[in-house]
Automatic annotation (TrEMBL), chain A:
Forms a membrane-associated complex with FtsE. It comes from Streptomyces olivaceiscleroticus. Belongs to the ABC-4 integral membrane protein family. FtsX subfamily. The gene is ftsX. It comes from the Bacteria. This is Cell division protein FtsX.
From TrEMBL, chain B:
It is found in: Cell membrane. Keywords: ATP-binding, Cell cycle, Cell division, Cell membrane, Membrane, Nucleotide-binding. The keyword Cell inner membrane does not apply. Belongs to the ABC transporter superfamily. GO terms for molecular function: ATP binding. SMART domains: AAA. It comes from Streptomyces olivaceiscleroticus. It holds the Pfam family ABC_tran. Part of the ABC transporter FtsEX involved in cellular division. Homodimer. Forms a membrane-associated complex with FtsX. The keyword ATP-binding applies. GO terms for biological process: cell division. This is Cell division ATP-binding protein FtsE. Residues 2-228 form the ABC transporter domain.
């Protein structure tokens, strides 16, 4: 009896405010869609960070004989074997260092040729122009500053370079986009909440006869409020379901069919991250409108 | 049944109190008319009984409970023991007569079987037997008020509050409604009725309480309406 009664009340309520219900569904779908997308973007950035940081090193470039006038450290010309051995020994003693490898001028020249082999600049470079270097792999790539402060002022060291600097702008861009998406989501969420509050107000007003009678005959406030709260929760849940469709569709069309084809050096997030996000989206879509309705009712429905 | 101890009520942002230092007692099974011109405090009095408002000063006791100390979540439970009837009937226009009465039972969670049994009984009692499936719009004013009384009485309340129940009805129909309320009163239900209907008060010869500018100026058993308006 109770369930049937409550369900019929909800059906009537949702149909009576069809346009408002629709607006709630759309704004919840968009805001939660963005919410899910930004969560996935964060996942994507950390996946990429893990992937790239694994590959990047800190490079310690040594002076070669042409560098005498390029800095105080190089005043004596090319770095001596003694200097190099000292630095290598010290690196190996540092706990944050995972691995140290040596790249000679010839190896550097080879890599250079591989990268720029077809371009005119390749012909201008000779092996002795390229510095020797240590490629240092850190256990934690963010501890770059330690290496930099320890070795950049050493005689014979031309430069300590963090290769993260080359990928960092990309991550910053992605993070920036993520923050922008979160801002838009926040706005949409506010819009959705205001719409829900307004819908509840209209709904409570159009049913004031019923609720007035319910109050008089002694229906509990829970019983009076429940149809309104469930109404909001159902609209929110439908919106959240649309958001899930948007997220899954986005992953399928945008990531799988388009980006993954275009950019093969990046490994993209998998379906497991997507599946992990969906329950959260549904839960928020259910609870948030219900809570908004609950608080709106305290104002607009005297019990 | 009902006791007011030095009750005053001042609404927010108003200087003049709607009720001033009212003390009275109504026993179980009484029939009381509440008279007074508009703005004399009749509605405030009834709202205090239903705990739609709280007294600013003094204590209101209804059905053995101090309403000033009654917590909000217990109010619905209290209202189930009070029936209410209004001048404008307050029926749901899109529900049938039977559904209107059943609504009062549904929303307090009564089982379906009991509702099916009780509703025709109470409609018989108010003289609307067999009109269960009619819509309120198809009924006369008097019949609509009978539906409202059926809804108020279906829970067998200890107290029935009527706010000008005959205000929208012609004299003859009013007499019918009063007979019905009298019958309900004889079953042991206390009836408190606010009214402007001089004829009815003079005919019934029940206890009359008169309010004037928020004060209780007359309390008379077997009284008359008492003033011209």
């Amino acid at each position: 009896m109770r369930a049937q009664f409550v369900l019929s009340e909800i059906g009537v309520g949702l149909r009576r405010n069809l346009t408002m219900t629709f607006a709630v569904i759309v704004s919840v779908a968009l805001s939660l869609g963005l919410f899910g997308a930004s969560l996935l973007m964060r996942d994507q950035v950390s996946t990429m960070k893990g992937y790239w940081y694994d590959k990047v090193n800190v490079s310690i470039f040594f002076c070669n004989k042409n560098d005498a006038d390029s800095g105080a450290n190089c005043a004596k010309g090319a770095a001596t074997t003694q200097q190099k051995n000292d630095i290598r020994a010290e690196l190996n003693r540092l706990p944050i260092v995972e691995k140290v490898s040596y790249e000679s001028s010839d190896q550097a020249y080879k890599h250079y040729k591989e990268q720029f082999g077809d371009t005119p600049v390749a012909g201008l470079v000779t092996p002795d122009q390229l510095p020797e270097s240590f490629r240092v792999k850190l256990k934690d790539p963010t501890k770059f500053a330690v290496i930099k402060s320890a070795f950049s002022e050493r005689p014979g060291v031309q430069e300590v370079q963090d290769q993260r600097d080359t990928v960092e702008p990309l991550f910053n861009l992605l993070n920036g986009m993520n923050i922008a998406a979160l801002c838009v989501m926040g706005l949409m969420l506010v819009v959705a909440l205001l719409l829900i509050v307004n819908t509840v107000r209209v709904s409570a007003f159009s049913r004031r006869r019923e609720t007035g009678i319910m109050r008089l005959v002694g229906a509990s406030s829970f019983y009076i409020q429940m149809p309104f709260i469930l109404e909001a929760a159902i609209a929110g849940l439908i919106g959240a379901a649309f958001a899930c469709v948007l997220i899954v569709g986005g992953k399928f069309v945008l990531v799988n069919n388009w980006l993954a084809e275009k950019i093969q050096v990046i490994n993209f997030i998998g379906w497991d991250s997507v599946v992990a996000v969906l329950p959260l989206v549904l839960l928020i879509g259910l609870l948030m409108p219900a809570l908004a309705a609950f608080f709106a009712l305290r104002k607009y429905l005297k019990v | 049944m009902i006791r007011f101890d030095n009750v005053s009520k001042t609404y927010p942002k108003q200087n003049r109190p709607a009720l001033r230092d009212v003390s009275l007692e109504i026993e179980r099974g009484e029939f009381v008319f509440l008279v007074g011109s508009s703005g004399s405090g009749k509605s405030t009095f009834l709202r205090l009984l239903l705990r739609e408002e709280r007294a600013s000063h003094g204590a209101v006791h209804v059905l053995g409970k101090d309403l000033g100390k009654l917590s909000n979540w217990k109010v619905p439970q209290m209202r189930r023991q009070i029936g209410t009837v209004f001048q404008d009937f307050r029926l749901l226009p899109n529900k049938t007569v039977g559904q209107n009465v059943a609504f009062a039972l549904e929303v307090i969670g009564k089982p379906r079987g009991q509702i099916r049994k009780t509703v025709p009984e109470v409609l018989d009692l108010v003289g609307l037997g067999g009109k269960e499936d009619r819509m309120p719009g198809e009924l006369s004013g008097g019949e609509q008020q009978r539906v409202a009384i059926a809804r108020a009485f279906v829970n067998r309340p200890m107290l029935l509050i009527a706010d000008e129940p005959t205000g929208n009805l012609d004299p003859q129909t009013s007499v019918g409604i009063m007979k019905l309320l009298d019958r309900i009163n004889r079953t042991g239900t206390t009836v408190v009725m606010a009214t402007h209907d001089q004829q009815i008060v003079d005919q019934m010869r029940k206890r009359v309480m008169e309010l004037e500018k928020g004060r209780l100026v007359r309390d008379q058993s077997r009284g008359v309406y008492g003033y011209q308006h």
